[in-house]
């Protein structure tokens, strides 16, 4: 099967964060997208930006609208030969997580 690169210019992802503590289970919607390139430690990366999304109906049902301006979220790169995707986040998901550390995000070789 041919490998389709994930890290391309103008790629978009919408991510919903869920919890069982609220009635519908959804607490957060964000749109992530790639735009532009940069070099970090000699490696080429795509810049990843994010928007906060808000539901138009108040119940987390589409359509959604962008709330505010986009902000730089981090950087993403792909090794097409090994079929692995790496990222550097500028935000920590957990207090003990290090900023600016490259992490393996996807391993499509398995």
Defining traits:
110 residues; mainly beta; 6 strands; globular
Give me the secondary-structure topology.
Blueprint lengths: L11 E7 L7 E15 L2 E13 L8 E16 L4 E6 L12 E6 L3
Antiparallel strand pairs: 1-2, 2-3, 3-4, 4-5, 5-6
Task: Give an overview of the whole structure.
0% of the residues lie in helices and 57% in strands. It contains no helices and 6 strands. It has a 6-stranded antiparallel beta sheet, with no helix packed on it. Strand 1 (12-18) and strand 2 (26-40) form a beta hairpin. The model has no long low-confidence stretch (mean pLDDT 84).
The proportion of strand residues reads over 45%
**Outline, from the CA principal axes?**
globular
Mean of pLDDT: 84
Class of secondary structure makeup: mainly beta
Order of strands across the biggest sheet? Answer: 1-2-3-4-5-6
Low-confidence stretches: none
Largest sheet entry: 6 strands, antiparallel
In DSSP terms (H or I, runs of 4 or more residues), the helix count works out at: 0
- What is the radius of gyration? 16 Å
Helix percent band: under 10%
Give the CA-CA distance, first to last residue: 13 Å
Give the SSE string: EEEEEE
Number of extended strands? 6
In brief:
The chain is mostly beta strands and 110 residues long.
